[in-house]
């Protein structure tokens, strides 16, 4: 083969190789994996919410001795604490303080399978039997975790007019919500009362301090297990 023809042949081969490589596309996709989470499977779901409305705000001076320019505090307490019970879980002694400077303080006591007086033992035993029937379908590990702890979630909404409890199907006009606080979530162990005390700042409190006269507390629980290493697990 003559050198000129050899050069032409090599050039044509190089062009064809380049065209072929340019036309080839590498396509990759991630491997197909099951939809289960990496951590322990979390079964179950949250409970239905229970809602309770506070009494009318009680205005307190921050300094009992009085004096000009002193801060003011509004105290809200739940009118009917029994409304914040969900089966074996309950929150009591709920009190909310609003400071005119924008600070709010929430305190309450939470129970999971609390030790009850003798006169309430029969009622609690009946409720416990109903729960036991529902838990028969749960896995052994899940049932044990259900007994040991529950996640409590508390939300607070502040209203500008007298608030009345309304169900999901209520067709009355909406209540004017000045601001909302929370949600505050925490784990409660079986038979171990948990005292919650949270103090935070919200600038909306200063803005609406004079207009708020009631608050509404929403409470619900969840029973899924805590994955290992989760911050805040007890």
Q: What is the count of helical runs?
A: 4
The average pLDDT score comes to 74
Tell me the helix content: 10-25%
Report the sheet-strand fraction: 25-35%
The largest sheet, given as strand count, sense and whether it forms a barrel, is: 6 strands, antiparallel
Q: What's the end-to-end separation, in Å?
A: 85 Å
Order of helices and strands, N to C? HEEEEEEHHEEEHE
Cα-based radius of gyration, to the nearest Å? 31 Å
Word description of this protein:
This protein has one domain (53-166, 173-222). The protein is 23% helix and 33% strand. It has four helices and ten strands. Strands 2, 3, 4, 5, 6 and 9 form a six-stranded antiparallel beta sheet that branches. A four-stranded antiparallel beta sheet has the order 1-10-7-8.
In short:
With 234 residues, this protein is of the alpha+beta class.
Can you give keywords for this protein?
234 residues; alpha+beta; four-stranded antiparallel beta sheet; 4 helices; 10 strands; 33% strand
List the helices and strands and how they pair.
Elements: H1 3-23, E1 50-53, E2 58-61, E3 72-77, E4 85-86, E5 89-99, E6 103-112, H2 118-135, H3 140-148, E7 149-159, E8 177-189, E9 194-201, H4 203-208, E10 214-222
């Amino acid at each position: 083969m003559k050198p000129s023809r050899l050069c032409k042949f090599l050039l044509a081969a190089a062009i064809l190789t380049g065209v072929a490589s340019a036309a080839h596309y590498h396509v990759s996709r991630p491997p197909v994996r099951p939809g289960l989470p990496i951590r322990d499977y979390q079964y179950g779901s949250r409970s239905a919410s229970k809602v309770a409305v506070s009494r009318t705000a009680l205005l307190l001076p921050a300094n009992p001795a009085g004096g000009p320019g002193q801060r003011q505090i509004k105290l809200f307490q739940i009118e009917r604490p029994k409304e914040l019970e969900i089966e074996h879980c309950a929150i009591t002694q709920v009190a909310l303080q609003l400071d005119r400077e924008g600070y709010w303080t929430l305190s309450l006591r939470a129970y999971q399978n609390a030790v009850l007086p003798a006169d309430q033992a029969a009622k609690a035993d009946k409720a416990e039997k109903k729960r036991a029937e529902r838990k028969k379908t749960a896995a052994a590990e899940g049932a044990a975790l259900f007994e040991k702890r529950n996640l409590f979630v508390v939300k607070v909404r502040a209203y500008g007019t007298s608030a009345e409890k309304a169900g999901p199907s209520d067709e009355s006009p909406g209540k004017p919500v000045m601001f909302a606080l929370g949600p505050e979530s925490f784990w409660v162990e079986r038979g171990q009362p948990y005292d919650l005390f949270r103090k935070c700042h919200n600038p909306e409190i200063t803005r609406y301090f004079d207009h708020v006269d009631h608050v509404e507390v929403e409470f619900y629980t969840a029973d899924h297990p805590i994955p290992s290493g989760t911050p805040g697990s007890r």
